[in-house]
Design brief:
It contains 15 helices and seven strands. It is rod-shaped, with a radius of gyration of 53 Å. The two termini are 104 Å apart. Bound molecules: fe (ii) ion (2 copies). One fe (ii) ion binds next to loops.
Length: 408
């Protein structure tokens, strides 16, 4: 439609004199004007060109102007209709306005000044309709752009989300795979080492089942102290493997039916370094090796190999040291019988703060006493020692906990 010529006015008037008068008048206003003498000609004009305003007489040779204007409203929505008539009949005016949606009704004989004003207003009306339409068009276009941008953004987001999900899944799968490999490797290694331990136990009947029992005592202390799972797993390895290096100790020393001489003791003490040496190639046992290296350290610094004391020794190392010594007390030796439980507990308490960490002794004694009472059907006293590792470390750094504070 935009390629068609746009005129200001189409005048439909069968009275030639009036038609030419109007043509002249409107042309003088600077308006572009086309003329029609009947409806048929007006229709042809309307198909050829576009008009801002159509000014039609009421009575035309081939019909009523009001009918033509009504018809035109259906096809040329923006074109503004003005009706002229000599019939001073109110009914005609009302009918015209209702059916033709007429913008202005101009009575004949014509008041030219009033007619010019009416056409001016009609042209303004046309322009405002065009502006409205273009605004509506812009808004709709803008909305469509927004909608398509929203759809695009949603698609991008969904794709990104899908990609992240699939990457996460891949990472999860890889992690699970690595974890399963690592746990396979660990359990294979533990199997291998357990069979080594069995070989040592065969060498020294007095150490039979020692690793397993030490591991059990460690678990009892862990339960009381509330150790995290990762530390428990390290301590489990360490307790089973701690004496692995005894495989390198000569039988005459390992199985000597009596106390060791200082030199024999020195040889025996090399089992710690030897265990460390065997485990060194396995990077995932780093923490386990530290715990094992500490199992003969003493709380007061008189142990070996480093002479570490208090919190220089890891909590796991202190736990293992107590468990190890306690199992030794409770086991038969070639040169002495196993201590009974009350005696062994007294020994532990006596060594608390010197050989042993008081916190660990407290935890083991509490657990043993609870166990004994449970076996006798007595109600258990308490569940946990209300101490955290940090709190203990702080207190140990300045002021060792008096032994009796843990036992009441
Ligand atoms: Fe040992
Ligand atoms: Fe041991």
């Amino acid at each position: 439609m935009t390629h068609e010529a746009l005129f200001d006015l189409l005048i439909i008037e069968d009275d030639t004199a009036v038609l030419h008068l109007l043509h002249e008048t409107f042309s003088e206003q600077g308006w572009t004007v086309r003329l029609a003498e009947d409806i048929a000609q007006a229709r042809i004009e309307m198909t050829r060109s576009m008009f801002r305003v159509v000014l039609s007489d009421y009575n035309l040779p081939d019909g009523f102007g009001v009918d033509f204007l009504a018809e035109m409203r259906g096809t040329h929505r923006r074109t503004v209709p003005i009706l002229m008539t000599g019939l001073a009949d109110l009914n005609v005016a009302v009918d015209a306005i209702n059916r033709g949606n007429i913008f202005r009704f101009v009575a004949k004989p014509l008041d030219i000044a009033a007619l010019i004003t009416a056409v001016h207003l009609a042209i303004e009306q046309f322009e405002s309709l065009v502006k409205q339409d273009s605004l509506t068009h812009d808004i709709l276009a803008h909305n469509r752009r927004l909608q398509s941008a929203a759809v695009e953004t949603e698609t991008l987001l969904r794709n990104a989300h899908d990609r992240i999900r699939s990457e996460e899944q891949t990472v999860e799968q890889q992690k699970a795979h690595i974890e399963s490999l690592s746990s396979e490797l660990q359990s294979a290694y533990l199997d291998m080492v357990t069979s080594l331990m069995t070989a040592i136990e065969a060498k020294d009947p007095y150490t039979k089942g020692h690793g397993e029992r030490v591991s059990r005592y460690c678990t009892m202390m862990e339960d009381v102290l509330g150790l995290p799972d990762a530390d428990r797993s390290d301590l489990r390895f360490a307790s089973v493997l701690h004496d692995l290096g005894k495989i390198g100790i000569p039988d005459n020393i390992l199985r000597k039916p009596g106390p060791l001489t200082p030199e024999e003791h020195r040889v025996m003490s090399t089992h710690v370094a030897f265990t460390d040496h065997i485990l060194k190639p396995l990077p995932f046992l780093g923490k386990v090796r530290r715990i094992i290296r500490e199992h003969h350290e003493k709380f007061d610094g008189s142990g070996y190999p480093e002479g570490l004391q208090k919190t220089q020794i890891s909590l796991a190392g202190r736990i293992l040291s107590v468990a190890d010594a306690f199992d030794a007390m409770r086991s038969h030796r070639a040169y002495r019988k196993a201590l009974d439980l009350p005696r062994a507990i007294r020994e532990l308490k006596a060594g608390s703060g010197t050989q042993f960490c008081p916190l660990c002794v407290g935890a083991l004694v509490l657990s043993l006493e609870n166990q004994a009472e449970a076996e006798q059907g007595l109600p258990q006293i308490s569940s946990q020692i209300p101490q955290t590792e940090e709190l203990i470390a702080l207190r140990l750094a300045s002021d060792p906990i008096p032994t009796n504070s843990l036992f009441g």
